[in-house]
Amino acid sequence: MSEVTIRINGRGYRVSCADGEENRLQELAQYVDRKVTGLAREVGSTAGEITLMLLGALAVADDLANQLEQLQDLKERLEAAEAEIAGRRAADAARERALGEAGTAVEKLAERVERLASALDSA
Predict the structure, then answer these.
(1) Are 2 and 18 in contact (CB under 8 A)?
(2) Helix, strand, or coil (residue 19)
(3) What 3-state class would DSSP assign to 1?
(4) pLDDT tens across 66-108, in order?
(5) Would you give the distance in Å from CA 101 to the centre of its chain?
(6) Which residues are within 8 A (CB) of 9 and not within 5 positions of it... i.e. 6 or more apart?
(7) Helix 22-43 and helix 49-122, axial crossing angle in degrees, nearest 10
(8) Cα–Cα distance between 115 and 111 in angstroms, integer?
């Protein structure tokens, strides 16, 4: 385990993290710091540290919820596109089968016409 000092709204906090996760923890802390610092500027000095941290956590949760909603929307759009592609492939396969059957029917009809023409020539 490693220990890292992160700064949020000008105050340092010593936190533990898994080895190798120090940079990621610092990046996350910077993100939270931007949220909390922005909120501190908005509400001024009337809000206490706990209130600012709570508002910051809610702002981060809101960002996460928005991202999850966008992800869900993209998943739904992807599923719809995949369904449309599958439908088009099935329609293409049906057309191919119909063309194959039509080709076979035309060949049989051509053979029959040739037999009839031969029969007429013989008569």
Answers:
(1) yes
(2) coil
(3) coil
(4) 999 999 999 999 999 999 999 999 999 999 999 999 999 999 9
(5) 41
(6) 33, 36, 37, 40, 49, 52
(7) 110
(8) 6
Residue 56, exposed/middle/buried by CB under 10 A (0-12, 13-18, 19+)? buried
CA angle, residues 6, 18, 36, in degrees to nearest 5 = 25
Which amino acid is located at 104 in the chain?
T
pTM above 0.85, yes or no: no
42, two tokens: 């908005």
Tell me the two tokens of residue 40.
Answer: 């501190």
**Residue 63, amino acid:** D
**Radius of gyration (Cα) for the chain, nearest Å?**
35
Question: For 12-47, what is each residue's pLDDT tens digit?
Answer: 999 999 999 999 999 999 999 999 999 999 887 677
CA gap 52, 55 in Å, rounded: 5
